[in-house]
């Protein structure tokens, strides 16, 4: 199979009413090679889980009812079996090849982070403390004690003070492990490099641009390599799904596929792996550099006419410049500075065409103003590229910022309909409720948030009219 040859010209017609693609690939130098993927290579069950990959050497995959892989059977007869804890985290891996059975056990903290890894060696009956993960604010590397912890085993003298048993990872803004170094210096006081990898955008290791003498467990996005499945770096274990970087796709459908109706449920990072990081196989996140999170976007304004476009563009630029930002503290207590780098321009015909026809999220958004004066509305899709507004709300900065935040990937923080009694109080009985169309209640903890509603509950439980955004 020819993969990721940037000089390749592919001629492969899809045969109607079949699942077969056939044809040839013309690679560099004019050499013609047949496409091997021409016989139902990939098999799926009725809910979209991959159950076979002939070219990958996988004859069958068995899934649990929770969407986790239970067992992989390879065409060479070897098998991998997985067991999980109550939270769905991998707890055990058993690799059977020939007469040898290799076992791996994972020890995790309350958040699911791997703390240590135990296993046997070459199929023997002992249990070894094989790895101890090293953390700062995130994973720094691993220590390899290789200590036999079976009953009655003797600890070798000097283990605790020895060097060259640690590997520290050097990663980029996406968490990709680019290299690992040991804690032992060479004669010239430089670090001893144990591994190095260059990746294609979707995570496949580039041929002839990798080196490894230490077998480091983690790679692209900082995820565990299951090299026993399809080869080095070809099968990545995320917390919720398994990823194939050769194809740039998952082995099962997106559990949040309804949130992204315009994308394949097998897509990786909304097809923008340099911009987004898929943290655990469920959803994407904006990339983070150090302790700074930056949201960048250019908004193109398409008003009813050129003059109105300029007026709206100038107003947005004046009202937003320098007024957004703050700090964010994650669940581990790490604090980040949040920055917004937003710019506003009037839209040309080329801008409208480029943004409207973009299938993937880009760092640009088109604001389209509708001339309908009879209706007041605004809309913006999560992670999308367009905002639609009626003329009556386009001049209200609150609506614009709310919808623009959706384009940046943020979700609503309000309930659409408020249920209150005739006095504005929260009623205790169902028959006391009445529907107030068009109003909303901000979710607890998001009062004053630009993605909250126009109303919030005060300390007495009453509905109080309040601006969602305050400007200085």
TrEMBL record:
What is the protein's name according to its record? RHS repeat-associated core domain-containing protein
Q: Which NCBIfam families match?
A: Rhs_assc_core
Please name the Gene3D superfamilies in this protein's record.
RHS repeat-associated core (2.180.10.10)
> What InterPro entries does this protein's entry cite?
Rhs_assc_core, T6SS_VgrG/RHS
Q: PANTHER family from the entry?
A: PROTEIN RHSA-RELATED, PTHR32305
């Amino acid at each position: 199979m020819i993969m990721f040859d940037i000089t390749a010209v592919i001629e492969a017609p899809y045969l109607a009413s079949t699942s077969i693609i056939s044809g040839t690939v013309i690679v560099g130098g004019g050499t013609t090679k047949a496409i091997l993927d021409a016989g139902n290579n990939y098999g799926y069950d009725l809910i979209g889980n991959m159950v076979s990959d002939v070219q990958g050497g996988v004859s069958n995959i068995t899934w649990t009812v929770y969407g986790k892989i239970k067992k992989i059977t390879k065409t060479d007869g070897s098998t991998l079996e997985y067991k999980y804890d109550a939270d769905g985290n991998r707890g055990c891996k058993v690799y059977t090849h020939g007469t040898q059975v290799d076992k791996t056990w994972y020890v995790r903290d309350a958040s699911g982070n791997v703390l240590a890894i135990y296993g046997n060696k070459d199929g023997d009956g002992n249990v070894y403390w094989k790895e101890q993960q090293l953390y700062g604010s995130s994973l720094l590397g691993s220590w390899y004690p290789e200590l036999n912890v079976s009953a009655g085993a003797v600890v070798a003298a000097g283990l605790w003070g020895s060097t060259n048993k640690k590997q520290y990872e050097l990663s980029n803004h996406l968490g990709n492990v680019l290299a690992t170094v040991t804690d032992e210096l060479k004669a010239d006081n430089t670090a001893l490099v144990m591994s190095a990898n260059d990746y294609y955008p979707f995570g496949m290791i580039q041929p002839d641009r990798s080196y490894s003498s230490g077998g480091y467990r983690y790679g692209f996005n900082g995820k565990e390599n299951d090299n026993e499945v399809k080869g080095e770096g070809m099968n990545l274990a995320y917390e919720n799904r398994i990823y194939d970087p050769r194809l740039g796709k998952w082995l099962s459908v997106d559990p949040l596929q309804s949130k992204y109706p315009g994308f394949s449920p097998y897509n990786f990072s909304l097809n923008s792996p340099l911009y987004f990081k898929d943290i655990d196989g469920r959803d994407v996140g904006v990339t983070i550099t150090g302790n700074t999170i930056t949201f960048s976007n250019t908004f193109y304004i398409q008003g009813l006419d050129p003059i109105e476009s300029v007026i709206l563009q100038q107003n947005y630029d004046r009202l937003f410049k320098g007024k957004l930002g703050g700090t964010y503290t994650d669940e581990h207590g790490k604090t980040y500075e949040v920055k917004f780098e937003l710019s506003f321009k009037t839209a040309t015909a080329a801008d409208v065409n480029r943004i409207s026809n973009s299938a993937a999220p880009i760092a640009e958004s088109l604001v389209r103003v509708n001339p309908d004066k009879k209706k007041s509305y605004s809309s913006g899709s999560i992670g999308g590229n367009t905002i639609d507004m009626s003329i009556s709300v386009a001049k209200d900065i609150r609506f614009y910022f709310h919808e623009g935040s959706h384009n940046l990937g943020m979700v609503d923080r309000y309930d659409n309909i408020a249920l209150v009694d005739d006095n504005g109080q929260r009623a205790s009985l169902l028959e006391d409720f009445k529907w107030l169309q068009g109003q909303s209640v901000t979710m607890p903890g998001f009062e004053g948030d630009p993605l909250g509603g126009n109303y919030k509950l005060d300390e007495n439980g009453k509905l109080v009219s309040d601006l969602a955004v305050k400007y200085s």
